[in-house]
Amino acid sequence: MLSWLNCRPALIPGARERFTSMYSMHLWFNSGGRLGTNAVSVDGGFPSFIPAEVKEIKDPFARALAQRIQRLPVKVGFSESCIMSSCVKPRFQRDTNPAVLLHCFDSSCLEWTRTYPLLEDAAVETWAIDILGWGFSDLERLPPCDAASKRYHLYQLWRTHIKRPMILVGPSLGAAVAIDFAVNFPEAVDKLILIGASVHVEGTGLLTKLPKFLAYAGVSLLKSLPLRLYANLLAFDDISLSTCFDWTNVGRLHCLLPWWEDATVNYMLSGGYNVVNQIKQVNKRVLIICGECDNIVSNKLAVRLHSELPDASIHQIPDCGHLPHVEKPEMVARLIADFALSGAHKEEQNPIVLNSAGEKNTSSFIC
C-alpha cells in the first residue's frame, strides 16, 4: 500500500536523508533567516492564517510544507488593495528558470507535499502557487474568481515576485490554467508540464445556470468528508483507508477558510476554464505525464492532447492513478527535474540563497 508515512525515496540523491525526520526541515527553516517571511519556530508552529485543523493532520511531510506557506502581496487592477497571496517560496535562487507548481481544481499548494522537497533535492528552484480563489490566500475582500481574474493574478504574482520565464506545471484542471496562461502571457513561460491534464472539458457548462442558492448547496457538498474520501479513492490506484482519510484532511483544509464558498461559487457561475481552442496555440515545449490507471481523465485524452500540441512528449507512469505527483512523487520529481534542467548547465554554480526579504543572502549556503 502507498503511504506518505512509509515512502522511501531512492531516485534523487539526498532525498532519503530529508525524509527521515519531520524535524530536519524545521532546523533548516531556522538557519539564519534564509527562508522567507514565514520561517517557523522549532516547536513546529504553523502560519496563523492556516486553519487550526492543520494540527490534526498526521502526515509529517504535509505538516512540514504547511509550515512553509506564506503570503506575498500581489497588486491587481480588479482589487482596491493588494491580495495577500499564498505560496511556498524556494529556499534558493538559481540561474536556471524556476519550476512553478499549480494545483488541481479546488485544491492548494499542499497537493505537492511529497514532490516539492524532492525537486529541491534535485536542485530545481521551485515555487508552489495557490491559484486565486483556492488555497490559503486572504480573500476577505472577495475579488472576482473567474478564469480571466485567475490568469491576471498569476501574471501579477509572476511579474512581481518570480520575474523569470517559468517551467509551469499544471495537474488536472491546473493543466487548463497553465495552457490558458501560456497562450495569453507567453513571455512568462519557458516550458509546460501537464499532469493528468483535464483540458478538453468546456468550462462548467450547465452549472453556470444554477440559481445561487443551489450553487451554494452544491459547493458546500464539495467540502464534505464523504465526497472528498470518495474522490480520493477514485483518484488513486491503490490507497489504504487510513492514508486516504489523512490525505482527505490535507486536501480539504483550504475549504475551511471563510471565503472559500463565495470564491468557488463565483468561479462556477462564471463558466470556468475552456481551453479547447487554445491547445494548438501553445508554442512551448510540453511534457505530458499521465497515470496508467487514471479513472478520472482517460489516457486516450492524454494521447489526443499529445497529438494536438505542436511540440510535446508524453510519459505514462505505471500502476498510478490521476495524481502521479502525489502517488508516485519520485518518478514525477525526476521527470520534472530532467525536463526543467534540459538545455541548462546541470553542473550549475552555487545557488543564491534568499533572506527573509527575498533579497540575496551573502552568507554561505548549507546543504
From TrEMBL:
GO MF: hydrolase activity
Domain AB hydrolase-1: 100-334
Superkingdom assignment: Eukaryota
SUPFAM superfamilies: alpha/beta-Hydrolases
PANTHER family registered for this protein in UniProt: ALPHA_BETA HYDROLASE DOMAIN-CONTAINING PROTEIN VTE7, HYDROLASE
Name under which the protein is recorded: Alpha/beta hydrolase domain-containing protein VTE7-like isoform X2
Organism from which the protein derives: Coffea arabica
